[in-house]
Amino acid sequence: MTLSDRARAIGQQINGTAGATLGPELVAGIAEFVGWPFVVSAGRVQDCISKATAPFACVVHTAANGSPTSDVIPADNAAVVIDVIEDMGIDEFRAAYERIGEAKRLQKSPAPNLKKTAVATLTLTLVFAQRSTVSLEVLAEELQRLNETRPSEEWPDMIAVSGVGVISYACQFPGHPKLGDIFPPAEKGLKALPPWYVIVTMRPTLEGTFNKLVAFIAGYAAIFSPGAKVPNFTLLLEGVCSNMVTLSGYQYNLAGELKPVPRQFYADRYIPPLPIRIEDRSGELLSTAEFIPWQDGGVVLMRGKLPLESILIFLGKEALSKGGITKLEPGFQLSYVLPIKRPDFIDALTRLSRQSNMTIRPTEPNLTIQKMANEGTSTPFIARMYLGLMRLRDVIYTDPKERLRFDKVLDQT
After folding, report:
1. Band of residue 180 on the pLDDT scale cut at 50, 70, 90
2. Which of 152, 169, 188, 369 is such that its CA lies 20 to 30 A from the CA of 383?
3. Residue 385 and residue 396: Cα distance in Å, rounded?
């Protein structure tokens, strides 16, 4: 039996569990895949100033003071908190959202400096429902509404309905088609702002819902405690439906807060300006550069041979201090979110041209006119459309004068 098959079997067992045994069954199921130094148990989470949450049915945490389990779990030890609900409607989901927020608000110690090893300290939070009295779409809509009332640091990271699907967040880079799961940042207060679109997604995982949930937990546990005994999350997802529906999107602003992407910048209505060409003196294209509006700042996208630093250096000291660079593939570079607007971007390119042997110029638009279809009145589809319209005219307008008025409006010659 593969790891994915085993997780799927445990998920079916949890889905068939009744009453008070639901929480213990979920605890045992997760514990089978998340090992040392973690333990999985029920309990309350408490921080260093004695602020504590209500009891949770499932907490993934490192053992405190040598004790494998405890009713009170230190916040610094809590990697994952799961609010478990047997039957979830809108009211139950709202209450779970508030309980999850309490866990997110607990104080945590700063992340340790392990040099090149990534490590996280924040608590991953999930809502798990055995059944739901409303659809996944209704829950997703309510999640987006509730998110408007709370800072992004308090949002739940995943909502899972057993045997149905999950709602979670995915990240996407501008100009790049791939979507990937996103974990909470390493700690509160981002110093560098990644150029991510953070998108609410729905996935019909069906019998693989527990697989998705435990893969998400295992992936986070590996960065919460590097070296932890957890399986490769991709093995848990074998055979699980990867299709998703994307809903609303968010972006980090300069204060490090996730805010909704302005509606005018959605792909279905935003037409970005053509990229700026950067050429050598002989006219050979070296790179193209684009400015992407981003909440209260902007992101620079560069494609081609030149390093993105050649532009960032002309954007000023403040922009340069925040000017991390993401390289997704050869010749594709994105700046982090910068405190700049489009005029600053154009000014930087102009200074680059003045102080180097390179020239800049806008991309010339290429307009192509070609025949797409041959739908004249003689084709069956168009003929049926117009005949149907005329038939409706005859039924509605029995008065010849009214029919003539309609015909004049319809006449397009």
Report:
1. confident
2. 369
3. 17
